[in-house]
Design brief:
The structure holds 3 protein chains of 3 kinds.
Chain A: E1 3-18, E2 21-36, E3 40-44, H1 51-58, E4 66-71, E5 74-75, E6 93-96, H2 110-121, H3 127-140, H4 157-169, E7 175-179, H5 187-203, E8 207-212, H6 215-221, E9 224-229, E10 232-238, H7 239-244, H8 249-256, H9 296-300, E11 306-309, E12 312-314, H10 322-334, H11 341-362
Parallel strand pairs in A: 3-8, 3-9, 6-7, 7-8
Antiparallel strand pairs in A: 1-2, 1-4, 4-5, 9-10, 10-12, 11-12
Helix pairs in contact in A: 2-3, 2-4, 3-4, 4-5
Chain B: H1 8-16, H2 22-40, E1 43-46, H3 48-63, E2 75-79, H4 107-114, E3 118-123, E4 135-136, E5 140-141, E6 143-144, E7 147-151, H5 157-164, E8 170-175, H6 181-187, E9 190-193, E10 213-218, H7 221-231, E11 262-265, H8 268-271, H9 275-287, E12 293-294, H10 299-324, H11 331-342, H12 345-365, E13 371-375, E14 388-391, E15 394-397, H13 398-401, H14 407-411, E16 416-421, E17 430-436, H15 441-453
Parallel strand pairs in B: 2-3, 2-8, 11-12, 11-13
Antiparallel strand pairs in B: 1-3, 4-5, 6-7, 8-10, 9-10, 9-16, 13-17, 14-15, 16-17
Helix pairs in contact in B: 2-3, 5-6, 7-15, 10-11, 10-12
Chain C: H1 4-18, H2 20-42, H3 74-110, H4 112-127, H5 130-141, H6 145-171, H7 175-182, H8 187-223, H9 235-246, H10 252-284
Helix pairs in contact in C: 1-2, 2-3, 2-10, 3-4, 3-6, 3-8, 4-6, 5-6, 6-8, 7-8, 8-9, 8-10, 9-10
The chains are: A alpha/beta, B alpha+beta, C mainly alpha.
């Protein structure tokens, strides 16, 4: 059982009052996924897709409406969020917050912030031992020890970010959730912090859940990526593959909108308001209306997240079976060919046609002594 | 001025008899072309100067008392995948438009020239010969002379249209999976796809080396034989060309079906044929005294194997250009070629094995029959731009399906002549394939001539406006 | 090495340096504190002793503030009264602040029923004017200084409740609170270690503003006879005693205690403003 964290049919709905009637906002709508030990998983989605809610469900600062969260096989979804602080599993799942300034108590020095976690979550006792643990963590995140006795307002953005990371890793959690850890930082600092995270990932035997709207960051750091849209996971798979060959139209659109021209303009979402997460239609794909591919079927049947090939899943009616796709992609790579999506789709159609013909040829049982004539003579 | 002779046989005879000058014939042909090509789009390039020069040379030679060659003063056109000295060989593709002009004529053109033919120009085709309808986005579609809203077939659509419209009595085309036979069928003219390896392909743009044939189209069986005889002969520059002696056919035409055993192909060739096609096939069978129906084994698989080999070799041929200049390809065929280039080699091997087997099984049939009959196309000419057609209740994509009946036969290189029929007095023609054993083009041509003599197969005179002179 | 106090001292120096009034307020505050602490030692006369001078004698060299109707030295009495007045104010404000602060913090953090109950309580208290409440408590529990302190404390509760509740309601959603939860803080520990320390600064401002008002309240109550009673020296009582003599021309009996009272209130108000400057800019960013 190497699955560190498992989410099963995880649902979180918030009651909202709209036009005087009670409705439900489906923030997280039936998620199923897992994180293995030692894996770095990226969670990508635009703001409002429910990733912040999901993060809080996983770190157990929020209670789910229904569904299960299992950590190392043990159900933790039933532990009330309020009771989680005292639970022995609290130290196993830690989080690095988006805004380093906001997540530090302004009246605590860096040392106090980090030490508190040690004091509350580990068995380390005594000033000396705790201080030593704090200093080790500071060293791991590249925070000079002289900064430990400073207050947050005396630290730079990057330094505060390091404090936040140190506080999270000092208790040696098995799962570290990073909620847009560089979004609030200057561009120059982002790179440095990302390098730090990359190093930590390699040095510590931790699983990371990296939540971000920035695809490039996720691609660099993550082994696997999950793409979220309006409370649902629409695609998941190995990071490199998902970026090289996105299956879901939303993923395609995200990649197409990246500067650098990796995608095709035909993949961009067509104009239209996103569907509301309040009382959504269960029989309709959530992307319908913005999807460049939308068809009749998308309106009558919500596509389930299904496994397309080993480790690759997508929730779309128009995802092609993958063995053939993998073969075609491999062949294209071998011949150093790169096709825009429209042609790539046409190629699949033609390839299917040839494959059908080949199948017909294969269906004829030939005598064993039949040899192909090298040079045909009629 | 009495009207000039229109058939190749008549023109050659008239010239030899001193009744007409080559120049007159050339000028008349060029005038017809100028008048009617804009509507037909059969020609992509008219070589007026050359035709006239060749005509003048013939006239001069005659004045000198030299004997007139077999096709003297016969104007003809060639599919634009043939090398013509001084012209860029287009093969219907924008891709090749930037190439330097050909240094020399293709071998078959040299032979036509030696036979006294007057080259009037290059004829339109499906880009890179990959198509059955000559709907060429770059050079325009060629229209069917019998109905300008319909295709002329392909990939030698220009050849079929030029002959059917009476612009020239003879045209040369190529046939890999049916590209002579389909336009012959849809335009209602005679065509000949000789045995694989009979006519040399040197000096022409290839498609699939293992399946490419070159051959003539004509407005009568006699003209067809005349042209074929002028074209025969080995050529070491085409490695697939067999070293066979010239076996003239014009003299044996009139033997008709004397002693020939004829059978009609059923099974696949009925399943994939619409009502008009089946009617034509049955009519021809009756006229030729068919002994009965024969079913060949695994014809569908054979057709599939031809498809696979075509895609693989065609794709491999063009892979570099597919990578470097994708926009210069027809969108319809581009991804098909690419898919062909990418397919696993195993599929091609299996297709080649099937080919060897299918050939062996079919040749066994020729122990008992000399001629097989089948329709040339499933339907008569379809509308330009038509995407699907319905055959026996099944909807099929128009373009690839037009060659369903020709593909299995050319797959094993058998010689085939096409004779045009007009079943039930229909407005549109449909051809039948007259299939013989390897190297027995004489049998095909005799059968074609027999059908024409019996009035079963006919090429109606072109509308009077065309032949007004 | 920076400590909180060193930093605060630095800022103090800066704030004081910027505004001369702040300087004045601080000095005055220091003076009052000093008086409260060492008053009895430096008073020239015994504040309760009568006839240390001629009754109703105007200010003179011997008696800077003059004497009252019982011949007591007004200066000494004013000095002694500082301790009492400040003491009442500090006690009342202290109780108010602690109880109100805690109630508000709990109400703001937990919300729900806690919030509703505390809110209703606060509203009820605010409905009562001070004097009515004071009289009610005195009537119920007896006329002592302690009960006055209680009355004043109660009347001030809503202010502290309001500030604490608002601040803790905001902080409830602060990032560091969530981070503290992840660090293993239970709800109560969160309140005491993270929320409350961070609502202290705005409460501090409220405290100093409140002090001025509390002093005034104490004086006002004793003016109408509730709380402090003769012969104890307290600014309010002294003003009350002196009020009857103003018409007859003995102005010093009421004036000096009144002036000092005014000065004290003024000083605390100014102090409150300065503290706000001290506390606000950094905490509010």
């Amino acid at each position: 059982m190497s699955q560190l964290l498992e989410a099963i049919d995880l649902v979180k709905r918030f009651p909202v009052r709209s036009k005087g009637r009670k409705k439900l906002l489906h923030a997280v709508d039936g998620l199923n996924f897992h994180i293995d030990a030692g894996e770095t998983v990226g969670l990508v989605g635009e703001s409002g897709c429910g990733k912040s809610t999901l993060v809080r469900l996983l770190t157990r600062t929020l209670d789910s409406t229904s569904g299960h969260v299992r950590f190392r096989g043990q159900g933790i979804g039933l532990i009330a969020a309020r009771a989680m602080a005292d639970h022995p599993l609290r130290r196993e799942i830690q989080m690095v917050f988006q805004d380093p300034t906001d997540s530090l108590n302004p009246r605590y020095t860096a040392r106090q912030t980090i030490a508190e976690a040690v004091h509350l979550l580990t068995d380390t006792r005594g000033w000396a031992a705790i201080d030593s643990a704090v200093e080790v963590a500071a060293a791991q995140v590249g925070l000079p020890p002289e900064l430990l006795d400073r207050y947050p307002h005396q630290l730079s953005g990057g330094q505060k970010a390091r404090v936040g990371i140190a506080r999270a890793i000092v208790v040696k959690p098995r799962l570290l959730v990073l909620d847009e850890p560089t979004a609030a930082l200057d561009v120059s600092v982002q790179a440095v912090i990302l390098q730090l995270l990359d190093r930590l990932k390699r040095e510590m035997a931790m699983s990371f859940l990296f939540v971000s709207h920035d695809l490039n960051v996720v691609r660099l750091l993550c082994d696997r990526v999950m793409v979220m849209y309006l409370g649902q996971i629409v695609e998941s798979g190995p990071a490199r593959e998902v970026f090289a060959r996105p299956l879901h139209p939303y993923t395609r659109a995200l990649i197409a909108s990246l500067p650098g021209g990796h995608g095709n303009d035909a993949d961009l979402l067509v104009g239209g308001d996103p569907q509301s997460p309040i009382d959504p239609d269960a029989h309709r794909c959530r992307l319908f209306g913005r999807c460049p591919r939308g068809a009749e079927r998308c309106q009558t049947q919500a596509p389930p997240l299904r496994e397309i090939s080993r480790g690759r899943s997508a929730a779309c009616h128009f995802v092609a079976p993958t063995e053939r796709e993998v073969f075609i992609d491999a062949a294209l790579t071998v011949h150093k060919l790169h096709l825009p999506p429209a042609r790539r789709a046409a190629l699949t159609t033609e390839f299917d046609r040839v494959a059908d013909m080949a199948r017909q040829v294969q269906s004829v049982r030939l005598p064993d002594d039949t040899a192909p004539a090298p040079q045909f003579r009629p | 001025m009495s009207s000039l002779p229109t058939t190749a046989t008549a023109i050659a005879a008239a010239f030899a008899g001193g009744e007409v000058s080559a120049r007159e014939i050339a000028a008349a042909a060029l005038e017809r072309i100028a008048a009617h090509n804009p509507a037909l789009n059969a020609y992509t390039e008219v070589t007026a100067e050359r035709a006239l020069a060749e005509a003048d040379a013939l006239d001069a030679a005659r004045r000198r008392g030299e004997a007139a060659p077999a096709l003297a003063a016969v104007p003809y056109g060639v599919k634009n995948l043939f090398d013509v000295a001084g012209m860029t060989t287009l093969a219907g593709a924008r891709l090749l438009a930037g190439n330097p002009p050909a240094a020399a004529d293709a071998t078959l053109i040299q032979r036509m020239h030696s036979a006294g033919g007057l080259l009037t120009g290059a004829l339109n085709m499906d880009a890179l010969a990959y198509g059955f309808t000559t709907e060429n986005t770059h050079y325009g579609a060629t229209r069917n002379p019998h109905d300008p809203t319909r295709t002329a077939g392909g990939s030698s659509g220009g050849s079929g249209a030029a002959v059917a419209a009476g612009l020239v009595p003879i045209a040369l085309g190529s046939d890999t999976n049916g590209s002579i036979r389909v336009p012959a069928s849809l335009c209602g003219v005679f065509g000949l796809k000789p045995t694989y390896g009979r006519l040399p392909r040197s000096g022409s743009f290839p498609f699939v080396h293992g399946l490419d044939h070159l051959g003539p189209l004509a407005a009568s069986a006699a003209d067809l034989a005349l042209a074929y005889d002028a074209l025969q002969g080995p050529d070491g520059r085409d490695p697939a060309c067999a070293q066979r002696v010239i076996e003239p056919t014009t003299d044996v035409l009139t033997r008709g079906l004397d002693g020939l055993r004829v059978a009609r192909l059923a099974g696949y060739f009925d399943d994939q044929a619409g009502a008009a096609a089946r009617a034509a096939s049955e009519r021809a069978a009756r006229a030729l005294g068919s002994l009965g129906d024969i079913v060949l084994p695994e014809v569908a698989a054979a057709r599939a194997a031809a498809f696979v080999i075509t895609a693989a070799e065609g794709g491999a041929l063009h892979l570099q250009a597919l990578r470097d200049r994708p926009d210069d390809f027809e969108p319809l065929s581009r991804e098909r070629l690419l898919a062909g280039a990418l397919m696993p080699a195993l599929w091609v091997e299996q297709a080649q094995k099937l080919r060897a087997w299918f050939r062996r099984r079919t040749l066994e049939v020729f122990r008992d029959v000399d001629l097989l009959i089948a329709p040339a196309t499933p339907v008569t000419a379809t509308l330009l731009g038509q995407e699907t057609m319905v055959i026996n209740g099944r909807a099929l994509p128009t373009r690839p399906s037009m060659g369903l009946l020709t593909q299995p036969i050319s797959f094993i290189g058998l010689p085939v002549a096409v004779a045009p029929l007009w079943p039930g007095g229909a407005a549109l023609p449909i051809g039948v394939q007259l299939i013989a054993a390897p190297w027995r083009e004489d049998v095909c041509l005799r059968a074609a001539w027999a059908l024409q003599s019996a009035g079963v197969a006919a090429v109606p005179p072109a509308p009077t406006s065309i032949n007004a002179r | 090495m920076h400590s909180v106090w060193q930093k605060r001292l630095q800022t103090l120096r800066y704030v004081v340096g910027e505004n001369p009034l702040s300087l004045a307020a601080f000095l005055l505050f220091a003076a009052f504190v000093l008086l409260a602490l060492v008053g009895p030692a430096i008073a020239p006369f015994d504040a309760l002793a009568s006839n240390v001078g001629a009754p109703l004698s105007p200010p003179s060299l011997a008696h800077w503030f003059g004497t009252d109707s019982l011949g007591r030295d007004i200066l000494s009495r004013v000095i002694i009264a500082t301790r009492l007045d400040l003491g009442i104010a500090v006690a009342a404000v202290g109780i108010s602040c602690i109880l109100g602060g805690l109630a508000g913090a709990f109400a703001g953090y937990f919300g729900g029923w806690t919030d509703r109950i505390v809110g209703r309580l606060s509203d009820t208290i605010m409905a009562f004017p001070l004097f009515v409440l004071a009289m009610g408590i005195v009537a119920a529990l007896g006329n002592t200084v302690a009960n006055i302190v209680i009355a004043t404390a109660i009347i001030n509760l809503p202010f502290y409740i309001r500030v604490a509740r608002a601040e803790s309601g905001v902080l409830r959603n602060a990032g560091f609170v969530e981070a503290a939860r992840l660090a293993g803080n239970g709800e109560v520990r969160l309140l005491f270690h993270h929320i409350i320390p961070n609502i202290l600064p705005p409460m501090t401002v409220q405290i100093s503003l409140n002090m001025g008002w509390a002093i005034l309240n104490a004086a006002g109550l004793s003016f109408i006879g509730l709380g402090v009673r003769p012969p104890d020296a307290e600014w309010g009582i002294m003003v009350a005693e002196g009020a009857q003599y103003i018409v007859s021309g003995e102005w010093w009996i009421a004036l000096f205690p009144g002036a000092v009272l005014m000065l004290a209130v003024f000083c605390f108000n100014l102090l409150g403003d300065s503290l706000r400057d001290l506390v606000d800019p950094r905490r509010r960013t």
